[in-house]
Design brief:
Biased composition (Polar residues): 266-278
Shape: elongated
GO molecular function: ATP binding; ATP hydrolysis activity; microtubule binding; microtubule motor activity
Structural class: alpha+beta
Number of helices: 18
Bound molecules: adenosine-5'-triphosphate
Largest sheet: 12 strands, mixed
Strand content: 15-25%
Domain Kinesin motor: 15-571
Number of strands: 24
Distance between the termini: 167 Å
Radius of gyration: 57 Å
Binding site for ATP: 122-129
Coiled coil: 582-630
Length: 790
């Protein structure tokens, strides 16, 4: 025999106390009706036996179990596992509550200021939710813990209705950037529509307590019971109609039908303990007086940004009323005494870890269709630099057990559950339910809060894809669940390894969100408060793990969970010295095979999606091409139309321009013609002048010849004075002067006309030129004669 570890008592370094709870087989009726979930196994197939209590056992409770691999299994090793205690199939909820360390855990939260963590771990369908949340007839550890807390605090619990500044005061000291609501504010916010305005609601509220005239349900007074009232300013109380289904005379039947319908949670989301119709009608107390803006600010905190803000009231189905929820087991004999000079506030918050992300379960989507939720961060905040918290959660101040229960039910309706081949209502996320107990001196400073927290965790179950018959998103969820549980297993394994004291505890808890949330507060820390300059020492949390197992469930999955969660393990049938390694290798191979299976399914899905995307892409491309062609054609047509228009416009303009040019040219030609005329006239004058000069010259020569001739004929005759011009003939200076003056007069007239036609030209120059030419034509004598003559 090779024993890996004989000790099973938690060492002082143990992070968890680990309890094992075996679930009973389903009743014959359930087995018959749900054979897919509970295949009937022969008694010989039971592979798990509980060892008789040994010397070391507490309360005479067993602490060891042995598992024998089924005959068809490849594994032959018989393994023995040790736990803090083992609860067998017949154990009731109350046994678990009293027998595990839950009660001391609550005592630590109330008295020592030590955080407590209670979690369940097991294969899907092994009874985790049953243990933590209870069933139709039995309360779970969560409800029992809440009951014990409120019983112990009793009248020292503060109600936000009686202390208007409570929310603001809690807000001021909250380190997690939370949105803190009063219970009534939160419930108005979530169910307001169902509660306030029956006429607008699909399911009319059966009775309006504050306004009987609007009620459509007649209820005899005797049948009403007030279950809870939060004082004179209360806006909430819960009434129940204990008369069962009202008689037709008393009830508007349509209203009853509607109310029942409204009470039935969504089948997919219904936790098993809420799956049946309520046998009684619930009536939620109304009316809710209109709030002043100040009151609303206190109640809704930072959500109140719009001045016209009225709480958004998406239509929500009412959860079961607290009085319709199970009241058993009874723990009225249990209560802790608390500090008498302190007053307490209890804040409830809920979140789930889904696909390794944290989602607030109390943050109801404002739009029912908008199911996308914002995930939250687990981080250190300004007010909590050395300790991580889930930042931005909604927290509800619950003044009573009933209020806390309604909030719990509301959060559970948000949690992801789905029907799988292994469990008809299987949790698809790890659910966290947190109860913060805040304490301050009675009548002391309003912001001097201290406190600790109880966290109850309902882990999602590990499952084999083959057994669970899941596909698509549910299969992917299973992959994430198994992965996070594998990391949790590694952390727990480290704990069991370190129990023998040979190895230091080094827990690799930062591998995923789940282990971070479970383990990061397992170690003591000191936080320094900047505002007060004080250092607050925080104790390490106390943690309890309840492992649930179904001895008739699949061997591999169950043995794997037991293997890593047990405080100690013995292998009793070694085949080879390294058998445990081989075993682990086999189980690892099995796990990897499973992952491969999951990945194959995912791959097929992705391929299918890619194919669809490609087809869509192809279609989109074709469509785009067609649109492009249409646009091109349209543009082309438009361009042609515009070009033609432009051409027309241009041709018109061109024609006009050509006309203008023609006209201009015509005018120029006209001017030119006139200029030529003048020029021609000028030429005629010149010619005439030349002719006259020639003629004058000829005459002069003729005269000279005649004079010579005369002198030769009578030499006694005194020579006659040369005559410049013959009086008979008008070739003398007088005639020339007349001709010139004529010519000048003509030139002046023409110059004036020319000036009128071409204003830029000066006729003076021409005249001077012409004058100069006249002078040029005369010799000195003629010039003298000309001057004497004038
Ligand atoms: N101890 C028990 N006594 C009676 N019924 C039980 C017990 N444990 C579990 N059951 C029943 O077995 C069924 C499955 O249990 P439960 O939903 O608690 O499993 P689970 O481990 O939470 O599964 P999952 O991980 O899929 O959420 C439920 O109908 C529950 O009532």
């Amino acid at each position: 025999m090779a024993a890996t570890d004989q000790s099973h008592k938690p060492s002082p370094t143990s992070l968890f106390q680990v309890y094992l709870r075996l679930r009973p087989p389903p009743s014959p009726l359930v087995q018959l009706t749900q054979q897919s979930l509970y295949p009937l196994l022969a008694p010989s197939e039971r592979y798990l036996t509980v060892e008789a209590p040994g010397k070391e056992s507490q309360d005479g409770m067993p602490t060891h179990i042995t598992i024998h691999p089924p005959s068809d299994s490849r594994k032959r090793a018989v393994e023995k596992f040790a736990f803090t205690k083992v609860f067998e199939e017949q154990a009731e909820q109350i046994d678990i509550f009293r027998g595990t360390g839950v009660v001391p855990l609550i005592e630590g939260v109330l008295g020592e200021g030590r955080d407590g963590l209670l979690a369940t771990l097991g294969v899907t369908g092994s009874g985790k939710s049953h243990t933590i949340l209870g069933s139709k007839s039995q309360r779970g550890l969560t409800q029992l813990s809440l009951d014990l807390l409120y019983r112990s605090l009793d009248t020292q619990t503060l109600h936000s209705a009686n202390h208007p500044s409570l929310i603001a005061s809690l807000n001021a000291t909250d380190a997690s950037e939370a949105q803190i609501f009063s219970a009534s504010g939160f419930l108005d916010n979530v169910y307001g529509d169902c509660l306030q305005e029956p006429s607008r609601s699909r399911a009319p509220t059966p009775m309006m307590v504050g306004n009987p005239s609007r009620s459509s349900l007649k209820v005899p007074h005797s049948s009403l019971k007030v279950h809870h009232s939060t004082g004179p300013r209360s806006q909430w109380s819960i009434l129940s109609l204990d008369a069962g289904t009202p008689s037709p005379e008393e009830t508007d039947s349509s209203v009853v039908k509607e109310d029942k319908a409204a009470s039935v949670p969504n089948a997919e989301q219904t936790p098993n303990h809420m799956s049946s119709l309520p046998s009684q009608l619930s009536v939620w107390k109304l009316p809710i007086p209109r709030m002043t803006r100040k009151q609303a600010k206190v109640r809704f905190g930072d959500n109140l940004q719009d001045p016209a803000f009225t709480p958004s009231v998406p239509k929500r189905k009412l959860p079961q009323r607290p009085s319709a929820l199970p009241q058993f087991p009874d723990i009225s004999d249990l209560a802790f005494s608390v500090e008498p000079n302190a007053e307490y506030a209890i804040l409830v918050s809920m979140y789930e870890v889904y696909n390794d992300r944290i989602f607030d379960l109390l943050s109801v989507p404002s739009n029912q269709k908008d199911l996308r939720r914002r995930h939250l961060l687990f981080k250190s905040t300004e007010a909590s630099p050395d300790r991580k918290v889930v930042a931005g959660l909604r927290k509800v101040v619950c003044g009573s057990y009933e209020e806390a229960l309604i909030v719990l039910e509301t959060g559970l309706m948000e949690r992801r559950v789905a029907g799988t081949g292994s469990n008809s209502v299987s949790s698809r996320s790890h659910g966290f339910f947190c109860v913060e107990v805040k304490r301050r001196p009675r009548g002391g400073l309003s912001n001097s809060w201290t406190g600790s927290q109880l966290t109850v965790v309902d882990l999602a179950g590990s499952e084999r894809a083959r057994n669970a018959k899941t596909a698509g998103a549910t299969l992917a969820e299973a992959g994430k669940i198994n992965e996070s549980l594998m990391y949790l297993g590694q952390c727990l394994q480290m704990q069991s390894d370190s129990n023998d004291g040979t190895k230091p505890t080094l827990v690799p808890f930062r591998q995923c969100k789940l282990t971070e949330l479970l383990f990061s507060n397992s170690f003591p820390s000191s936080s320094h408060h900047h505002a007060t300059h004080t250092t607050h020492h925080r104790n390490a949390q106390k943690a309890i793990m309840i492992v649930t197992a179904d001895p008739l469930n699949e061997f591999n999955a169950t043995s794997q969970i037991l293997r890593y969660s047990a405080l100690a393990r013995e292998v009793t049938v070694p085949r080879i010295p390294s058998v445990s390694i081989v075993e682990m290798a086999f189980s690892e191979i099995a796990r990897l095979n499973e992952e491969v299976e999951i990945l194959n399914v995912k791959l097929t899905e992705q391929e299918e999606r890619r194919r669809e995307a490609e087809e869509n892409w192809q279609k989109a491309e074709e469509k785009a091409e067609q649109i492009e062609m249409e646009v091109r054609e349209e543009c082309w047509g438009e361009m042609e139309r515009r070009t033609a228009e432009e051409r027309r416009r241009w041709m018109g303009a061109w024609g006009e321009e050509a006309d203008r040019n023609d006209e201009h040219l015509d005018r120029k030609l006209e001017i030119l013609t006139q200029g030529i005329q003048i020029h021609e006239d000028a030429i005629d004058q010149d010619t005439r002048t030349t002719e006259l000069e020639n003629e004058n010259e000829a005459l002069r020569r003729k005269l000279e010849a005649l004079e010579r001739d005369l002198q030769c004929r009578s030499p006694t005759k005194a020579p006659r004075k040369p005559q410049l011009s013959s009086p008979s003939k008008d070739y003398g200076p007088a005639a020339l002067g007349t001709a010139l003056s004529k010519f000048n007069g003509m030139s002046l007239i023409d110059a004036a006309a020319y000036k009128a036609q071409s204003p830029g030209k000066t006729p003076g120059k021409k005249m001077r030129k012409l004058t100069a030419r006249k002078w040029d034509l005369m010799d000195e004598n003629e010039m003298d004669a000309f001057e004497n003559h004038y």
